[in-house]
Amino acid sequence: MEILVLSDSHGRRDKIEEAIKRQIKKPDAVIFLGDGLRDMTSANIGDVPLFTVRGNCDAGGLFYDNNTPDEQCLILGDKRIFFTHGHRYGVKSTLSPLISEAAKRGADILIYGHTHEATELTLTRDNDYGIKLEKPLSIMNPGSIGSYPYYFGVITVDREGRVLLSHGYV
């Protein structure tokens, strides 16, 4: 299973479409983490299932969408994925509240945006955040598809259930 992860397009619908075209095979899903919902919903991504949350720039004015949640938890394959833009959890200063929430929800994978910084890490049960986890937690921030170098993320879950986090750019 491959999931394309995008965030923070900020008006760059063209970069969303480029990221889709860069995929070797059609992803099984696309997750968009906010700050550009209008870009994402108007982009040509084909018939790939799309899951979205809104970011701080989507929460008012021209981009406001009352039907898009601030966060979601879903199961793709056999992995529970918790995703949010991240601004409500203060991710620019610490990941601890977000990791705690993901742990409470039983997530295998945590995805967030907002910082525009591409990040990949996997936490074990005992970790530097001091948060006891029941199982390992893979964490990704795809970076910004709307700011140079126009990052996107890819989450691959292999047949054995291993999670691989990677980044690309357009």
Walk me through the topology:
Elements: E1 2-6, H1 13-22, E2 29-32, H2 37-42, E3 50-52, E4 71-76, E5 79-84, H3 96-104, E6 109-112, E7 119-123, E8 137-141, E9 151-157, E10 163-169
Parallel strand pairs: 1-2, 2-3, 5-6, 6-8
Antiparallel strand pairs: 1-9, 4-5, 7-8, 9-10
What's the gist of this structure?
With 170 residues, this protein is of the alpha/beta class. It contains three helices and ten strands, in the order E-H-E-H-E-E-E-H-E-E-E-E-E. The strands form two sheets. Strands 3-2-1-9-10 form a five-stranded mixed β-sheet, covered by helices on one side. The chain has a five-stranded mixed β-sheet with strand order 4-5-6-8-7, covered by helices on one side.
Q: What features would you highlight for this structure?
A:
five-stranded mixed beta sheet; alpha/beta; 170 residues; 10 strands; 31% strand
